[in-house]
């Protein structure tokens, strides 16, 4: 039935997506730092290119489904590392697989975040330089900033990068969308929730549904977004966060 490439496949939402796509009969090419078909460091340009080259070789240059789930949380001290993985690691792989996706009229879902519209500077230097593809300049702007100050900006820029590509990619036959999960019980989220300082902020975030998401239920929505039933969805950012964004931004959508 073809090939599905999943980054962040070793745990969390990525692992659940890989299992669901495998159950459909797709051949899975998992990419992660370790415990994956392709072990690559997506924080580096060399690691990203190696992941692209290996995945294209393994798939024969034809990719049917792509899930970009690899990412680092805001509890990481190194803000530059967060930006390198969350934005540049995702966008470079996205663009690197475009031709392979076009071969199959492929479908793509990018993991954004419901924080992408909160505590961000849409016109700030960090977001602007990300969208311009200037990685070194982005790192200069970030400096020694903590990941907590970079995470939302990286997901905001990633969502915009997806939407900027949506029209062109749609004309090329590629379905391209993003999902914005809320607090989901993954190793990344647990790192933030258990952090002595960041955890206090996590506890203050309202969730009308009054629970955290299970990673597999987020993967279930992604499975739908990758299906034929979602063929007309293009350039959308779908919030699946238990109502958090609606409570915090009731007039923003």
Widest beta sheet: strand line-up: 3-2-1-4-5-6-7
Query: Ranges with pLDDT <50 over ≥5 residues?
Result: none
> Order of SSEs, N→C?
EHEEHEHHEHHHEHHHEH
The tally of beta strands, per DSSP, is 7
Structural domain tally: 1
**What percentage of residues falls in helices of 4 or more residues?**
40-55%
Q: Give the oligomer, counting copies of the same chain as homo and different chains as hetero.
A: single chain
The coarse silhouette is globular
Judged by helices, strands and strand pairing, the structural class is alpha/beta
The whole-number mean of residue pLDDT values reads 94
CATH topology: Rossmann fold
Q: Give me the Rg, rounded.
A: 17 Å
**What is the CATH superfamily classification?**
NAD(P)-binding Rossmann-like Domain
Indicate the proportion of strand residues.
5-15%
Tell me which CATH architecture applies here.
Answer: 3-Layer(aba) Sandwich
> What is the CATH class designation?
Alpha Beta
